[in-house]
Amino acid sequence: MPRDNFLGVFGHVAVDVICSVNKFPRPNTCEAIVDRRTEFGGTAGNMAVFAAALGVPTALASLVGDDFPADYRAFLESKRIDLTDLKTIKGMRTPSVIMVSDRSHNQVGFVDQGAILAQNGLPLQKHTIDNSKVIHVGTGRPKYALQVCRRARKGGKLVAFDPAQEIHYVYDARSFSSVIREADTFFCNESELAVALKYLRFRRAEDLLDIVDMLILTAGKRGSRIMTSGGEDIRVPPCKAKKVVDTTGAGDAYRAGFYASMRKKMDLADCGAVASAAASFAVESFGGQTNLPSWTEVCKRAFVGSR
Q: Is 172 a catalytic residue?
């Protein structure tokens, strides 16, 4: 029988090479790597793992290559993630990311899209859409994202659009406008918001609410903001981590925390608090899938001193 998932996540499953440097080099110069690690990653992989750890029945739709690590697949299976739509593309590489952080936790990344480049030529991964209540459309080919959104909306699903850093170099004004108009919710950070406004020829964040019902804007150390077309404007303070080691995957953890609390039918302010707390766990270790809290641990950190 088909599994009844709450969350269906579309995006990258990748192998991350995470490097730390004291400062970014100038062009045509080098800097020493202080630390280097290889971790399981990808925006969709990170989010699915974090959501599953928080008790959310989750499906993961992505494309990997022949070289996809067997231990990564086994790890995803151990989290009881629905992998029906995690497809291997013969003759292609698994997506990979080289992410470099400086001492101030600024990041630059280099992405090898690998098997994701085959998306447009493949059948739609319908299982994840049809057997999930909420569809999170993350990184990937814009044409494919549009197909996912349209099928999800036709099926009465809640659709969230989250192109992440790909808004800068994969999308253009036309493709972005087409996809966001099929979504109910838009996730972004401040730099991504600026590009979204430019593409749509809007001036303010609030203008996006003419298109989507909810805008969720993350701002790192300054917390986040949740705005709705119904007039809610919630400022969510950041949740303090015990230590900041690596910010890779923090945004993915935030989204997982938001969905976990949404599933519990919490109000938006509490959804934001839980999301912020989930992100605070993610930054405490290298990689986006390593420091996984339970639902109880996230709530304890989110609401300490307030309840």
A: no
